[in-house]
Amino acid sequence: MKNRIFKSTTFKLIVLVIVVVLSLISSTLLFNNQIDKLKNQIDKLYFGNFVPIVKLRIISDNYQKIITCRTLKYFCDFKSEQDIITQEWDYYFNTYKTDDERIVVEAINEQIIDAFKSNKLHKFKNVRKRIEFLVDYETKVAFKQRKVFIEEYKQMKNSLFYSNVLILVLAFVLIAYIIIQVIKKDNQLRILNKKYKIDSITDGLTKLYNRKYFDNIFDNMPFIANANNWQCAFIMIDIDFFKQYNDTYGHDKGDETLIKVANILKSYFDRQYEFVFRLGGEEFGVVLFDINDKIVEDCLKDINKKVTDAKIEHKNSKILDIVSISIGAVIYEPNTYISANKLYKKADECLYASKQNGRNQYNLIKGTFK
Questions:
Q1: Max alpha carbon distance in the chain (Å)?
Q2: Which residue in 163, 177, 256, 305 has a CA-CA distance of 20 to 30 Å to 243?
Q3: Residue 191 and residue 220 in one domain
């Protein structure tokens, strides 16, 4: 049963769905993780915006040193401060600037050059104010850029998240639809297969088991009886004067009568280990497992009476004006090792004896026989 489930198309499709869903979920989580990493990287870039600010702070601090010195005395040695200012300013000056920023920076650059040439205190102070202006400007720009990025990042992340959810839902709906269709087809095939199996062992007219299935069951009856230490019985039933019935009422009516008799047998032998067959024409067979002598005799009496109690008209019968049956039966004792062919022959002999003795009766062989 388990192997059948694991090999079924439905099980494989369910596994496929689980794998696809898990893959989509994993890709969503991984993608979100990569987005977070991207944010961290952009944050680093944001902090990189503070590098110009640091440079400008160094320039401002060195200008303050020059201003302090020039306030105290006219002649100052600020060669080292000038070198630092020149170096840091070159870095800042050569970084990317918009057109508007470039105009401002170039104006300040000229002021720096002029201040060192003229060596006047008020010019140093003026340049320092412009440097402080740049520090404030760069700080505001950095915060503004980060704020814009954070908003765009949130929108992008939400968009990606909902897109992934939508894809996941659509994929699930599509896969579910495919699975439903496959399951329907699978069920249809299973029903057709089951119907085919039933049809292959069932008589088309009476819906009893057919001769092919009888051969399979009956051939194994001795082995089953021996293995379980069961008494078993085989019963042969023949409708009396059925040829005359067909000649009188026609084959359509004959088929109706076959069905009625079959239904009587099927409704009577409806317990476990009881099998009813149409052997051919108007002949029926019954195989009973795990019984005893009294049960078999009671069954033979009952079915004989039930058929006559049905009062199916048969005006050309030579014994009654209704349909009747003749029966031959044999009981198999376990571990007597009599072949199925021998049992069939004995049951047929009993049926023949019932017909010879006047019909509408049964003959039964009990016990061991050779």
A1: 156
A2: 305
A3: no
How long is the chain?
370
Strand, coil or helix: 3: helix
- Per-residue pLDDT at 38: 64
pLDDT of residue 192: 47
Catalytic annotation, residues: 282
DSSP label at 271?
S
CB within 8 A of 111, min separation 6: which ones? 123, 126, 127, 130
Both 223 and 296 in one domain: the answer is yes
Consecutive H or E run containing 164: helix 121-200
The token pair that represents 368 in the structure block: 């061991």
Q: How far, in Å, CA of 232 to CA of 217, rounded?
A: 12
* pLDDT tens-digit series, residues 295-346: 999 999 999 999 999 999 999 999 999 999 999 999 999 988 888 999 999 9
Q: Are residues 86 and 194 in the same domain?
A: yes
Domain that holds residue 349: 211-365
For 282, the 3-state DSSP assignment is coil
Task: Output the domain CATH number for residue 335.
Answer: 3.30.70.270
In this structure, are residues 366 and 331 in contact, taking their beta carbons and an 8 Å threshold? yes
Please state at what angle helix 242-249 crosses helix 251-268, rounded to 10 degrees. 130
d(C-alpha 132, C-alpha 136), whole Å: 6
Residue given tokens 């004959």 in the structure block: 254
The closest alpha carbon to 303, from 343, 362, 349, 254, belongs to: 362
For residues 270 and 253, what is the distance between their CA atoms, to the nearest angstrom? 26
**Domain's final residue, options 149, 170, 200:** 200
Q: Euclidean distance between the first and final Cα of the chain, in Å?
A: 43
Q: How many domains does the chain have?
A: 2
User: Counting beta carbons within 10 angstroms of the beta carbon of residue 137, is it exposed (0 to 12), middle (13 to 18) or buried (19 or more)?
Assistant: middle
Q: Global pTM?
A: 0.54
